[in-house]
Prior knowledge:
The chain is of the alpha/beta class.
Amino acid sequence: LEDPTCVFEPFYYDRLVVITPNAEAYREYEKTGFPIERFYEEKWIIREEGSGTRKETERYLREHGVDLRRMNVVATISNQETIKKSVSTAMGIAMISSAAVEDYVASGQLLRFPLAEGDIYRKLYMVWSKSNKPGKAARLFIQFVRELYAYL
């Protein structure tokens, strides 16, 4: 979001991936990435309006000639955990943060794929008011985050 009264400091680039149920039909994409041509053939679970993940997904799709209105969207969900559970039960597939699905991928409940046409990222930001300077604890946290992600 844009707000002239706030400071927005990006600190991390979060990679978005396609997640699918752990099914044989999807394993062929482990080497090639998930092809954009398949987008119209799948049932999709998408993030809610206003979500950073949704905004970046929509931007990426537009840039690659995919019409979101033609996709078979079966659900719009605001909670990442609910999205992961829904995909693991074969309700549909989704685009989500790669880091957010580590647990389900490690346990074998989901498959995770980059996009064959190139990576997609969203920026994560620290945000604070310009007029209300961060207190000591907040300043320490901001410094911690800066140092933690400086090398990633």
